[in-house]
Design a protein that fits this description.
Blueprint lengths: L29 E3 L9 E3 L4 E6 L8 E3 L2 E3 L1 H13 L2 E6 L2 H5 L2 H4 L5 E7 L2 H4 L2 E3 L4 E9 L16 E4 L3 H9 L5 E4 L2 H9 L5 E5 H4 L8 E17 L3 H16 L2 H10 L7
Parallel strand pairs: 3-6, 3-7, 10-11, 10-12
Antiparallel strand pairs: 1-2, 4-5, 7-13, 8-13, 9-12, 9-13
Helix pairs in contact: 1-8
Amino acid sequence: MSMQRSRPMFALFTMTAAAALALTGCGGGGEKAPEGGDAPAVTTIAEGRLTVCSNPPYAPFESTEQGEIVGFDLSLMEEVAKDLGLQLAGRETPFEAIESAAALDIGDCDVGASALTITEARQAKADFSQPYYDSAMGMLVGPDSGIDSIDNLEGKTLGVQQGTTGEGWAKEHLDPGQVRQYEHLGDQTSAFQAGDVDGIINDVPTLQPYAVDGATIVTGLSDSEVFGFMVKKGNTALLNAINSTLDRVKTDGTYERLIAQWFTTAIRDD
């Protein structure tokens, strides 16, 4: 995989359709029976609310506006809450606590929604919804970085977000001294803009707004970063409720509307 420094390279994204699952899930402070059928009631940690852990800034999936977490992930979760007759409550949470399922296990939230790539390691710790977005991993590099291929990264320093699949890629392909860890995307992009690193690795949609002033995106590190929503292991009622909503929004036009809302405008969390 290589990159021409004279022009940006952007990944092409495809919407992933998944098998429909019947509605049936969670533990906590309140119960909401799905409409129709004999499926178990969905229980949540707070009565009347669906509490969602997310880790902004990570536009367009999650960002903060006037103290409220918004974005593509939260809009989809709003649809889930609406179908269950619940109020959505976003909770800003460190990414590592979300992807490790620690936030779910200790009862901080009902759902982890933070552009989470579905991996075997994560599936061992939590249950995932059907896929809701197909992304790709990329590397944002500056015009003077000297990086035109992943084959010439020797001596280069790359910033990664802790707990992400990008960090996993860097640890597998680079020497430890080449990798600098950051808590979230905002720290990564600040380090990149300050010239503290030669490049940063993350999901392409989040890097695209920063591919300006000669900066370009190297793609191909991973061409399939399939995102899903996490629930506590064994929470099948809530899991199936999420899947039911995802099936609905993909057929009634809601999904396309939300894609247009969140992905047509470049959002930067500077």
